[in-house]
Amino acid sequence: MSTPDLPAPGSTERTRVRRIPEKAVTDRSVLHTVLDAGLVAHVAVVDDGQPYVVPVAYARDGERVLFHGSTGSRLFRALAEGSPTCFTVTLLDGLVLARSAFESSMHYRGAMVLGTCTVLEGDDKDDALRIISDHLLPGRWDDIREPSKKELAATLMLALPLDEVSVKISASDPDDDPQDVDRPVWGGVVPIREVFGEPRPDERGAAYPVPEYVKAWTR
Amino acid sequence: MSTPDLPAPGSTERTRVRRIPEKAVTDRSVLHTVLDAGLVAHVAVVDDGQPYVVPVAYARDGERVLFHGSTGSRLFRALAEGSPTCFTVTLLDGLVLARSAFESSMHYRGAMVLGTCTVLEGDDKDDALRIISDHLLPGRWDDIREPSKKELAATLMLALPLDEVSVKISASDPDDDPQDVDRPVWGGVVPIREVFGEPRPDERGAAYPVPEYVKAWTR
């Protein structure tokens, strides 16, 4: 997919990073990298003035993100009907141990997308399911049964364009106040990362070897 | 803090788990366990009909959660003024590899809190800062400088009661359709967990040993 002429992250009034603007990133390739590194996003829906935030599995597809829910979900139906949403991905990368409580913080990479979703149907919906599977479970699709008509009918597939976005990255050493720098205590960063544990077969799965594509997964 | 007479998770119309209700949990002690295991929550604020979802560091304090933001943040000021919010914590525990695309899913523990925040001031605010530090960076508080008056003035400390909540846990083996159970392919769960990496001192931190409390941290 060629890159369309889209605005830079943080370039609208609603997405401009006001707090700690030096952490804002305006490069769209960084937006893509952050979205591609995540597995779960937090999506908001407003119902009668009350916001709800639900986790969703997702994938980036060019200049949009794809995620799905149940046609039985009131919140997903609201998104399908064009209710404004916010789609946020946060990757926690570490704890920042400064010499003061105020400067203690976290390393993270975060992306926020504002907009309204469109519903995908037909071939677009089929393609989207495969794209999400390939992102979350690379290599798995060819080993499993594709969705039936009934299963497809129970699934709402949504696409949200990456039109109005912000990206924020915190990856620096502690930013200690001059009065604190000589405090005689360790300071620095304790990294955090996600790792995969040993694959655990279910009862029937134990009869088969762990697939090579699963062994290749890393976080 | 004694446990007040609070409703069970999922017991209001707004928090009843409709989708896959067998994953719903109504035990408040599980709510506490999930909240205590997380470091970051996703909090929603609605502004002019548009929801925003931002990540926050937080801690549970009895039957409420505490989190803070900047007094300079429009979204945090809206929360301070009583704008309805949703506070969601999601812990991703694994990938569930079923024999169909439809049943492929994730292991997770999730909590959602609805309500409005109150602003903490004075001693309550001081206590809350320490409680959050003790949750995220246990043992650190006594080594670092406490917040100055100016720093406190720049910090909005919010408390959200655990009055209206839902808890959902997905921890089962693949729930394959009868037509798929004999498909000749590995199935099971690939666990995911967060781990701490080797603490990395900054320039001045290298002169001191890594504190024992940091070495004791595990995820």
UniProtKB/TrEMBL annotation, chains A, B:
Organism encoding this protein: Longivirga aurantiaca
PANTHER family found in the cross-reference section: 5-NITROIMIDAZOLE ANTIBIOTICS RESISTANCE PROTEIN, NIMA-FAMILY-RELATED PROTEIN-RELATED (PTHR34071), FLAVIN-NUCLEOTIDE-BINDING PROTEIN (PTHR34071:SF2)
Tagged with keyword Secreted: no
Molecular function terms, GO-annotated: oxidoreductase activity
Enzyme class, spelled out: oxidoreductase
Pfam families hit by this protein: Pyridox_ox_2
EC number: 1.-.-.-
Keywords (A to Z) from UniProt: Oxidoreductase
Protein name per Swiss-Prot or TrEMBL: Pyridoxamine 5'-phosphate oxidase family protein
